[in-house]
Amino acid sequence: MIQLYNVCKTYQKDAASALHNLNLKIAKGDFVYITGPSGAGKSTLLKLLYCAEKPNRGQILVNGKNITRMGSSHVPQLRRHTGIVFQDFKLLESRTLFENVAFPLEVQGKKRFEISNKVYQTLKHVGLHGKLHKYPLQLSGGEQQRVAIARALVVDPLILLADEPTGNLDLEVTLEIFELFKKANARGTTVLLATHDQELIRRFPRRAIALENGQLVYDHTP
Amino acid sequence: MLDPLIYLFRRVFRNIRQSPVLCSAAVGTVAVALTILAFFSLIVINVQSLAAHWSEEIQIVAYLEREPSPARLKQWRASIEEMPEVAAVLYVDQQEALRRFKSRLGSDSDLLEGFGAEILPASLEISLREQYRTRESAETVVGRLRHNPELAEFNYGQDWLERFEAFLELLRFGAVVLGIFLLFAALFIVANTIKLTLYARRDELEIMALVGATSWFIKIPFLLEGALQGALGALLALIGALALFQLFLRQGLVALLSVSGGDQVVFLVWQQQLMLVCTGILLGLVGSVLSLRKFVRI
Questions:
Q1: Pairwise CA distance, residues B73 & B53, whole Å
Q2: Structural domain spans, chain A
Q3: Between chains, do A50 and B215 touch, taking CB under 8 Å as contact?
Q4: Which of A50, A137, B143, B168 has CA 20 to 30 A from A221's CA?
Q5: pLDDT band at B129, cuts 50/70/90?
């Protein structure tokens, strides 16, 4: 599903590279932790996968397409099959839960009844169908992250990229959130979860790759 | 087909609802700039049309050294009437000149008591054909007439016309410079106002891009919003310009140009009004495009 060949990424000339000669293969339906200390290149790797950044060198293939050669007009199409979850949720505070989750479907030009149905089902899946008309700031951090996950899952993504999704949450909520990722993975979505939470990795052992100074230092499948 | 269109307009109106102050600021800026522009255009248009009207009345008066013999006069008239520019030639003898002068003096005509007709010269009044009623044609005709030594002096309002044309040129140039300056100022302010609204919604723009919105999907509502603000500003400017025209400008121009009745002082015709609205729309659109370039990058 995802292949990286000799990928290098430097943000500024003469600065240390964020990623250095990275080679990686992730199969369809995999669940992979990306771990490592802050500044190791975890976020950069995810950004390359949703085309927020371009590598300076190397090739990246996603679902058989070379995204390093892809023109900017094709980026939206790639992102429509990619769910992205952030540590700071990135929800629209002026919109209700329903509107937040409906957003990716509106962008894709889906019909209104189709949107309503799908959004309701997805919010039910994350256990928030009773709060459709609440606003993000009326919810707890854990609930907000569940909305963000619902927004990522509502398009039935092929790939789910999560950048420290539980970084701001306590253990109990983290476990709840993790369950959602597991469920998505069970339905066939390839999940890449960037985290430095070793406790999580110990509790739910999956393939884990570790980055340090932009280089792959560890790749282990239990 | 209808669904995306309704969705698009819902997004436009949601944007406007979300930042009414910024939206009003953009509309106000366009309105003020275009009102000033329309105001100066009105002055230029009216002065210019009156000038054109005046130049239609251009005619050449050739003053004679002495009254000619009828045969001489006949000969001159024939040769002048042969010129392609000339429509008609009227001979005003000294008696007629005195009579005219007296009637012009009105109640003060007794000042001329004791003077005879010989104090005024006889003259030939040469009116030009419509297409030749310009200063250049008048000069051409005068150039030919100068060969006749009996014709002492010519008058076709040359000094006055020259000065007036220079003034008109200056007015036109001033209006163009001011217009360009105002349009750029309005564009700058509109672009920055829209930039502020975009800055306030940068999260939304970022999320849109992240969930797969195409660049046009993101941009079109903002472009429409800009165009709408521009159109609204231009309509307000039209109302403002009409109010200024009715309250001050009409009387001012009538007094300045000494036009009787003021019927010749006109407001912008519908094509000019449409042009003003289009300018407003263009201002809004270009303002949006300039700011969107910075904010929407996928």
A1: 31
A2: 25-42+72-220
A3: no
A4: A50
A5: confident
Average pLDDT estimate for B53-78: 82
What is the ipTM, given to two decimal places? 0.86
What's the CATH superfamily of A25-42+72-220? P-loop containing nucleotide triphosphate hydrolases (3.40.50.300)
Per CB-CB distance under 8 Å, the chain A contacts of B206 are: 90
- Dump pLDDT digits (tens) for B193-246: 878 888 888 888 888 889 988 888 888 888 898 899 999 999 999 999 999 998
In this structure, the strands spanning A57-62 and A65-66 are: antiparallel
- Flag whether pLDDT at B151 surpasses 90: no
**Partner-chain contact A111 B217, CB within 8 Å:** no
Q: Which chain A residues touch B if contact means CB-CB below 8 Å? A: 50, 52, 72-73, 75-80, 82, 84, 90, 92, 94, 103-104, 106-109, 111-112, 151, 155
Q: Tens of pLDDT along A156-210?
A: 999 999 998 888 788 888 888 888 889 899 999 999 999 988 888 888 899 999 9
Q: What is the pLDDT of residue B155?
A: 82
pLDDT at A113 over 80: yes
Per-residue CA distances from B286 to A146, B16, B223, B224 (Å): 40, 18, 8, 11
C-alpha span between A213 and B3 (Å, rounded): 50
Beta carbons of B211 and A155 less than 8 Å apart: yes
Amino acid at B194: I
Residue percentage of chain B with pLDDT more than 70: 94
Alpha helices in B211-296 (DSSP H): 215-244, 250-257, 270-295
Candidates B7, B204, B298; nearest CB to A92: B204
Structure tokens at B191: 């672009």
Within an 8 Å CB–CB cutoff, is residue B212 touching chain A? Answer: yes
pLDDT at B1 over 70: no
8 Å CB contact of B203 and A109: no
Check residues B256 and B286 and name the one with the higher pLDDT. B286
Q: Say which residues have a Cβ less than 8 Å from residue B24's Cβ, sequence separation at least 6.
A: none
What chain B holds in terms of domains, given with CATH numbers, is 2-54+162-295 (no CATH), 59-156 (3.30.70.3040)
Residues B255-281: what's their mean pLDDT? Answer: 81
Kindly tell me the number of DSSP H helices and DSSP E strands found in chain B.
10, 4
Q: Which of B204, B212, B217 sits opposite A79 (nearest CB)?
A: B212
| Confidence check: pLDDT of A52 > 60 | yes
Torsion of CA A120, A122, A125, A131, to 10 degrees: -50
Which residue, among B210, B220, B296, B298, would best test binding to A if mutated, counting the most A CBs under 10 Å from its CB? B210
Q: What is the 8-class DSSP label of residue A41?
A: S
